[in-house]
Design a protein that fits this description.
The protein is an alpha/beta fold. The protein is built from 5 helices and 4 strands. It is elongated and about 40 Å long.
C-alpha cells in the first residue's frame, strides 16, 4: 500500500490484514487508506467498533457461515467476501427484508 501511495497518491487503497491491534489502526492512518479488509476471525465487536470510531469502513474476508454473515451485516460492515456467493446473496436478501429494504 505504501508503494502504491508513492506511485499514485490518489489511488483508492484499502489495508488487508490478518492481525488486529492498535498498530493496525495506526498503519491505516499513516497510509491514509479508505478502509480495512479484516480476516473474519478478527472481526470482533470491539475491533469493528474501533474501526467505526476511526471512520474506516470494513470488508470482511472470508465469511462462509450464514449466521456469521448475518451478524456482520447487522454490525454494518461495508462488504463481505465469501467462498459461497449463493449463501451470501441469500443471507443478504433475508437481512434486507428484515430491515424493510
Amino acid at each position: 500500500v505504501a508503494q502504491v501511495r508513492r506511485l499514485a497518491p490518489d489511488a483508492a487503497c484499502w489495508l488487508l490484514t490478518e492481525t488486529w491491534g492498535p498498530d493496525v489502526l495506526q498503519l491505516a492512518a499513516d497510509l491514509r487508506v479508505g478502509g480495512v479488509c479484516l480476516d473474519v476471525r478478527l472481526a470482533s465487536e470491539a475491533a469493528l467498533g474501533q474501526l467505526r470510531a476511526a471512520g474506516l469502513p470494513v470488508i470482511i474476508w472470508t465469511a462462509d457461515q450464514p449466521a456469521r454473515i448475518h451478524e456482520l451485516l447487522h454490525a454494518g460492515v461495508a462488504g463481505i467476501i465469501t467462498n459461497l456467493p449463493r449463501v451470501g446473496v441469500s443471507v443478504r436478501a433475508e437481512w434486507e427484508a428484515e430491515r424493510g429494504g
